[in-house]
Design goal:
With 468 residues, this protein is an alpha/beta fold. The chain is 31% helix and 25% strand. It has 13 helices and 24 strands. Strands 1, 2, 3, 4, 5, 6 and 19 form a 7-stranded mixed beta sheet that branches. Strands 8-15-9-10-11 form a 5-stranded parallel beta sheet. A hairpin with a 4-residue loop joins strand 13 and strand 14. Helix 1 runs parallel beside helix 8, helix 3 packs antiparallel against helix 4 and helix 3 runs parallel beside helix 6. The longest helix is centred in the first third of the chain and has 25 residues. It is globular and about 65 Å long. The model has no long low-confidence stretch (mean pLDDT 97). The protein binds flavin-adenine dinucleotide (FAD). Flavin-adenine dinucleotide (FAD) binds next to strand 2, helix 2, helix 3, strand 4 and helix 8.
Length: 468
């Protein structure tokens, strides 16, 4: 192996790294991938997207079965078998990880087990668990080392009463009560899982609303829906103290108006903060710039060192698996000298939160569009008026299309409700093709589907929605 020359060596096998490796192989490059974990797939497959969505699915099935009678199906003795929930999650994670292993083999990608470190120029040093070192000769390098949980001073985790997103995936039992600190995607998803599993749950958020990066109307609807289900939200509150007690934990803080807040539960989930993982990469003394922990790159994902690229959570763009993958493709196409390499358009990145009801968006919120000086027009369609949503028994939420008056171009779409995370894909296509709201509204959507709500919201921009 020592004298072998690779065209590209990818450090990290998350959705950034493994996708980049496959595309590089497809483009005819000779590829190596270095992963320090025994399993491939990174945060996304092992501790992020996949296991969380599997838990959410189990929570959904459990809740659906409790409401089976609403659909004329009598079910009794419905019980949560949490150990089996965890088993299924493990099985699905393992299958996904094995699938990535298969894809590495299928694409003739050489896998190195160990921690990769830049040894510029043109080399990556790999240190195995046993301390043995190997050197890879390589023309290009892609750093795809991802991110890890960032410790929050004063809220140190112990993996038992105070947990982070890694720990909470491995629980053996459902806690009786749970406080979730942080109402971003990770926080509301876990709140949505464990409240349905029976934990009395409260979400605490520093900013004035849940999912604070989403459109304000979406946040309001989510808070309303959570309240209806008994999931409590304590927004606009800065927690500054945590104490462990014999029964669990007590956290306290203040609202922006100075009101004291004190909450008690068996468990605290700290769902705020991740940081780019650059430990041991050997960036010191290179021309690679790191700012606030993140590796700085240009529009083609190039760092300050020629032939060294960085992608995914380790660069300062939103921490999302699909974005990591697309950044990987841009990097690889660029190094392979492909024509028409298109840098990422950050306005077209979909954001999905798989809580219940689901939340998804792409583009500008109404407020951001106005802030940017657009003459804004909005169309909204509630799922309450959708035949299919009624069939599903999921009538909460709406689709909101934000466009601008001059050309009618769609600037953003915001969805809360059934299958929002699937519906957003057509809105991404529409925006990628610079569609007008009128064109999206003219596009025939099958009946009965929840996707009709997207069409109707687009028609609603011009006051032409049919079913409201
Ligand atoms: C709880 C949770 C839920 C999430 N849910 C979603 C979701 O639903 N949708 C979504 O889009 N995103 C989600 N994310 C975010 C998503 O997981 C990340 O954005 C994504 O994994 C980033 O991919 P990446 O390839 O940049 O890095 P990672 O997936 O973090 O992979 C990096 C890999 O590099 C390896 N590595 C690091 N340093 C070295 C080294 N020196 N040598 C060798 N190997 C190294 C690591 O072991 C790791 O396997 C979630 C995250 C969390 C925590």
């Amino acid at each position: 192996m020592a004298n072998e020359q690779f065209d590209v060596t990818v450090i990290g096998s998350g959705p950034g790294g493994y996708v980049a490796a496959i595309r590089a192989a497809q483009l005819g490059l000779k590829v190596a991938i270095v992963e320090k974990d025994k399993r491939l797939g990174g945060t996304c497959t092992l501790r992020g997207c996949i296991p969380t969505k599997q838990l959410l699915m189990s929570a959904h099935v459990y809740e659906q079965m409790q409401h089976a009678a609403d659909f004329g199906v009598q079910a009794s003795g419905i019980q949560l078998a949490f150990a089996d929930v965890q088993k299924r999650k493990e099985k699905v994670v393992m299958k996904n990880s094995k699938g990535i292993e298969f894809l590495m083999k299928k694409n003739s990608i050489t896998r190195f087990n160990g921690t990769g470190r830049l040894a510029l120029p043109g080399k990556v040093e790999v240190t195995g668990e046993d301390g043995k070192k190997q050197t890879i000769n390589t023309k290009n390098i892609i750093i795809a080392s991802g991110s890890v949980v960032r410790p929050i001073p004063g809220f140190e985790t112990d993996g038992e009463r105070v947990v982070n997103s890694d720990h909470i995936l491995e629980l053996k039992e459902v806690p009786k009560s749970l406080i979730v600190m942080g109402a971003g995607a990770v926080g509301v998803e876990f709140a949505s899982v464990y409240s349905r599993f029976g934990a009395e749950t409260t979400i605490v958020e520093l900013l004035p609303r849940l999912v604070p990066l989403e459109d304000e109307e979406v946040s309001k609807e989510l808070e309303r829906s959570f309240r209806k289900r008994g999931l409590k939200s304590q927004v606009d509150t800065k927690l500054d103290k945590m104490e462990k007690t014999a029964e669990g934990i007590v956290v306290s803080g203040k609202t922006s108006k100075g009101l004291v807040v004190k909450l008690e539960a068996e468990m605290l989930l700290v769902a705020v903060g991740r940081m780019a993982y650059t430990e041991g990469l050997g960036l010191e003394g290179t021309k690679i710039k790191v700012e606030r922990g993140f590796i700085q790159v240009d529009e083609y994902q190039q760092t300050g060192e020629k032939g060294v690229y960085a992608i995914g959570d380790v660069v300062p763009t939103p921490l999302l698996a699909h974005l990591a993958s697309k950044e990987g493709i841009v990097a690889v196409e660029h190094m392979a000298g492909q024509k028409d390499v298109r840098p990422i358009n950050l306005r077209l990145v979909p954001n999905c939160t798989y809580c219940d009801p689901e939340v998804a968006s792409v583009g500008l919120t109404e407020a951001k569009a106005r802030e940017q000086g657009y003459d804004v027009q909005v169309g909204k369609f509630p799922f309450l008026a959708s035949g299919k949503a009624r069939i599903l028994g999921e009538e909460e939420g709406f689709v909101k299309v934000v466009s601008e008056k001059k050309y009618d171009e769609i600037l953003g779409v915001h969805i809360i409700g059934p299958h929002a995370t699937e519906l957003i894909a057509e809105c991404c296509v529409a925006m990628q093709l610079e569609s007008t709201a009128e064109e999206l509204g003219r596009t025939m959507h099958a009946h009965p589907t929840v996707s009709e709500a997207v069409m109707e919201a687009a028609e609603g921009v011009h006051g032409l929605a049919i079913h409201i």
